[in-house]
Amino acid sequence: MRTDEQPERRARRPRRLPRRRSDRVEALTTWVLCGLVAATLVATALVGGWVHAFASDRIRAEQSDRRPVPAVAVADAPVVPGDGGVGPTYGAVRWTAPDGTERAGSAQVPPLTKAGGAVTVWTDDRGDVVAPPLGSEFPLVMTATSVVFTLLAGFVLIVFAVLGERRLLDRLRAAEWGAGWRRVEPVWSGREDSGRR
């Protein structure tokens, strides 16, 4: 038999079962939830990058305008009990500002510092006492905190979306099952031909 004499064969596609409305809605909402998860991950990366850049810029700014200055304790520093032992101690100190003037004020000093003891204080460009610049761990801590909170917010949003999806699908399926039962019940119970309704 030549190939031109062979009966025409159609490419058979597998038959697909009809899909219920709830199945189509579930497929759509699953894609939406997958998109929500992807959006949460992208938002987390963007927020983490932005917070890290902001924290790094803040550290650079603080390190550029704050400098350690040698100072002398004017009085003995007391020991202040804190939550985990000794808390931060502040005492009267004297230092020289960048313009050469003698300054006096209160600054954080090590506990049990004696009067006349050498301490280091941090000053700004005008010579005023300021807090020490943030440590190098600040960007990492801020980034980790922002990532955790962004992921947590995304997780809560996704959980509520899944709960809403389940509730919607349960209602759709109950309506479909009810409609199917109204079609099948008369035949199944034998009431179809009896005329009773």
Automatic annotation (TrEMBL):
Asked whether the keyword Membrane is assigned, the reply is yes
Q: Where is this region: Disordered?
A: 1-21
List all Basic residues biased stretches.
Answer: 10-21
Q: List UniProt keywords, sorted A-Z.
A: Membrane, Transmembrane, Transmembrane helix
Keyword NAD assigned to the entry: answer is: no
Top-rank taxon? Bacteria
**Spans through the membrane:** 25-51, 140-163
Q: What is this protein called?
A: Integral membrane protein
> Which organism encodes this protein?
Pseudonocardia benzenivorans
